[in-house]
Amino acid sequence: MSEPIVEAATWADAPAIRTLLAHAFRENPLVTWVLPDAGTRLEACAAWMGASMDRYLASGVVDVARLDGTVVGVAAWRPPGSPAEPPSTLPSPVGVLALVVGPDRAHEVVTMLSTSVGRFAPERASTYLNFLAVPPEHQGRASVGCSWTWASPGPVETASAPTWRPSYPTSASSASSRPAPPA
């Protein structure tokens, strides 16, 4: 088996990323709370997280790990200075959630998530890692996990809110197309 390659995602990766996220998070405790119907959770998760991932592809930094050409990992980042307003394209993540669980439940979920994020956000501008996932069949395999190495960008504001960034590969084929890591 070859080693995974980490590179910038493209719009062509969106269907594979959406599917990977659905499988990776299907049994996650937060996702099971948000999407309690096990019979529809996989599709609902793909739709909900897919709409969110579209915003990261448009305005953030998304990396994928590929193994023999197949996406086997995804990391979605929001560096400091990223646009504060998400793209106005449809569907929105909140809109998809409202369609799946109903508007009242969607409001409850969004309120809880927004409140929680605000309590733990670092005081200074920081790179935010929103998604880091591999599909269940690759979870626990060091070969995929080792594709991402993490480097601290400097002093950490608080012990509960560290800031991390990817350490990009240095091969000529992959490094030439990478954006500079956020400072």
Descriptive keywords:
two-stranded antiparallel sheet, 6 strands, 39% helix, single chain, disordered C terminus, alpha+beta, 183 residues
Kindly summarize this structure in a few lines.
This protein is α+β, with helices and mostly antiparallel strands and 183 residues long. The chain contains seven helices and six strands. The protein is globular, with a radius of gyration of 17 Å.
Give the SSE map:
Blueprint: E1 5-8, H1 14-25, H2 29-34, H3 41-59, E2 61-67, E3 70-78, H4 93-101, H5 103-120, E4 128-133, H6 142-145, E5 149-151, E6 165-167, H7 172-175
Antiparallel strand pairs: 1-2, 2-3, 3-4, 5-6
Helix pairs in contact: 1-3, 3-4, 4-5
Description:
The protein is globular. Helix content is 39%, strand content 17%. It has a single domain, classed as Aminopeptidase, CATH 3.40.630.30. Helix 1 (14-25) crosses helix 3 and helix 3 (41-59) packs antiparallel against helix 4 (93-101). It is an alpha+beta fold and 183 residues long. It has seven helices and six strands; from the N terminus they run E-H-H-H-E-E-H-H-E-H-E-E-H. The protein has a four-stranded antiparallel beta sheet, with helices on one face. Strands 5-6 form a two-stranded antiparallel ribbon. The chain has helices at residues 14-25, 29-34, 41-59, 93-101, 103-120, 142-145, 172-175; strands at 5-8, 61-67, 70-78, 128-133, 149-151, 165-167. A hairpin with a 2-residue loop joins strand 2 (61-67) and strand 3 (70-78).
One letter per element, helices H and strands E, the order comes to EHHHEEHHEHEEH
Fill in the CATH topology: Aminopeptidase
CATH architecture: 3-Layer(aba) Sandwich
The residue ranges in which pLDDT falls below 50 over 5 or more consecutive positions are 143-183
The CATH class label is Alpha Beta
Radius of gyration: 17 Å
Q: Main beta sheet: strand number and arrangement?
A: 4 strands, antiparallel
Distance between the termini: 35 Å
Quick one: overall form? globular
- Please give the count of helices: 7
Count of folded domains = 1
Please count the beta strands (DSSP E, at least 2 residues each): 6
The percentage of residues in β strands lies in: 15-25%
**Kindly state the mean pLDDT as a whole number?**
76
CATH superfamily: Gcn5-related N-acetyltransferase (GNAT)
Structural class: alpha+beta
Spatial strand arrangement across the major sheet: 1-2-3-4
Helix content: 25-40%
